[in-house]
Amino acid sequence: MRTSPGQRTPLGRRVPLGRRVPVVGHGTRRRSARRRRVLWTGAELLVTAGVLVLLLVVHQLWWTNREAKAGAERGVQALERQWGSGAVDGRPGAAGEGGPGADSAAGDPSVADGDGDGGDAGVDGRGGSSAGSGGGGGVPRSSQAYAVLRIPRLGLRVPVAEGTSKQKVLNKGYAGHYSGSQQPGQQGNFAVAGHRNTHGEPFRYLNRLGKGDRVEVETRDATYTYLVDKVLPQTSPRDSGVIGPVPRSLTKPGVGYGVPGRYLTLTTCTPEYTSRYRLIVWGVLVAARARG
Description:
Layout (H helix, E strand, L loop, with lengths): L1 E2 L17 E2 L3 H60 L1 E2 L2 E2 L16 H4 L32 E7 L4 E7 L12 E3 L10 E6 L20 E5 L3 E14 L26 E9 L6 E14 L2
Parallel strand pairs: 6-7, 8-11
Antiparallel strand pairs: 1-2, 3-4, 5-6, 5-9, 7-8, 9-10, 10-12, 11-12
């Protein structure tokens, strides 16, 4: 309905000549109200989604770290108490079984004489065969914490558990031993994975390690000291050669080792907050000291 010039509007006003006054009907008002409700509802949903995403980020970046770091520290303390009491898996006196591994690498030329130059922190594939823990104390059970990894330069000490399961090992803030690789101090390659971000992120600053940095692995029998020798800043998650008995990259020829020795391999994701590539740190065994 439109009012013609010269007519009076419903409010009694006269419409000037040459001008039409549109009259808004009830249908138009209802459509406008519906649009406002839709826009308001959409805005509320976006705000709610944003809050949920923020809470998820806080949970992943703060809460999981807090819980996993605390759990990992408790794990280290539990191992130290267990070793101090001479009990392993509740069996008194088991700490004396097997000895510390008499084939100490100190002075072994194969340790130092290389040929120059593993959706998670792991590297696909397995290298070698597991042959007992720490020089001969029986094979650890899957997900069992049985050693402590210390990196003085990073102020790091975390339990090492058997296997690289996300839920049972890595997400607890532990370092995970590749089940197919050798145990600490043995001939071959002791290969370990750890998260770089979230869930305790024990390997967050692994990229800061350089040649000569010390890495210690303590078991119930002995403490094994490795020195960092080489760093591979980036390789494929499928580069299984880096955790082989003689670690050597399969995707970057010439990077790694060519002769047997007693090696340590640390693997984690790179770049940070992604799992696209793997960062590899290699070390060689230089000393083994029996627990007093």
